[in-house]
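Need Multidrug export protein MepA's 3D structure for a figure. Predict it.
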Amino acid sequence: MEQTKQQEASQENQLGTAPIGKLLFTLAVPAITAQVVNMLYNIVDRIYIGHIPEIGTAALTGVGITFPIITLISAFSSLIAMGGAPRASIAMGAHHPERAEQIMGNCLTALLGLSVVLTALFLLFLEPILWAFGASSNTIGYAMEYMGVYVWGTVFVQISLGMNMFITSQGFAKTSMFTVVIGAALNIALDPVFIFVFDLGVRGAAIATVLSQAVSAVWVMLFLTGRRTTLKIRARCMVLRWKVLLPVLALGVSPFIMQSTESLLSVVLNTSLLKYGGDVAVGAYTVIASIMQVINLPLQGLTQGAQPITSFNYGAGNMDRVRKSVRLLLTCCLTYSCLFWLCIMLIPQVFIGIFSSDPELMDTAVWAARIFLFGCFAFGAQTGFQQSFLALGQAKVSLLLALLRKIVLLIPLIYLLPLFFPDKLFGVFVAEPIADILAASTTTLSFLVFAKKKLKDKPSPTL
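Structure prediction for Multidrug export protein MepA:
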């Protein structure tokens, strides 16, 4: 116990005294690594599917239609995990381990219950949902093949994503990272086997993904029932208690809204692109959405690394270190996003060629990428400042700024701009950079105003 207290005190001392650059590097590298691995988990299916002989382009487009469903399934795991894990950590900090275990047990029960409901709903209404989400007669078969398998793995997604947060919240960062690494590595290995060797095509990609998620889920459950964990899953704690679960839902609703609105955005884009550009336009967006993950996930890793530095020093009243950490984070984020912007503007075909070699899809995607991602240089400011608001305890402001980009700006622009351009498809694609630049400008100005008021050095007390 004494050794643990000394380790915690040492960590706190580092956050308050160590050089900001060294701290950010130490904390951000594992977070970025986890995000990059998670990115591979998400896009490896698309890479392999896009290169299936003869059907690759149509199959890739069909799988792209399924993204809103996959995102929504993940959003429900965040609703429980992002609400439950912090509350369990607070209970541990208050020296109430039994309460923390009860929170974790109730969250597991909720995740299992959601898995049953979501699986049943999607199996019953999968085809009409996919038609509504932008499928066409050319792509509906591939979308059905993929989701017809993937939906059966919903319980593994809920456990591997949701319960892994309870490993992270206990301080087992490496174990939590291995959950992602194991699943991603297995998926990369199994995809070509099931797709090409067993000749199962799109269905094979889904089988590989579900098996990988199952292994990750087993890994999580073995850890949380094993000897190393501080909080252990116990049957008596899994009895559902609303007084335990309702506060979890209240805390988790913000990340749920952020993820579920991403699902809504994908539906709006898919249906608009199908209307004005057909399957090729939807396929191009599928590729571009994958490239956007390459931009955004490392930025999220950077912000995760900076969060404890910013939060600790803000709580300690050390505003000089808060300002330094935010400036360094912003510099790193902007440098990365601007370099990526330059690559996309100059050589988009290099990135697009990873997913497909179909000439028609390549031509459309290269043209569209330069338009759709023209504002990606602003991602650094948008992500850096938005997440800094979160690190400073301004969760509502962070959520409102996220919704500003997607709900207030982007979705209306997707519907409105095609009315003003002869090239309707251009109108859909150009909505993204306009929303990105406007949202980043608003977020930057908001943070500067906040910083001027709240991040001043506290005056020294008069003697």
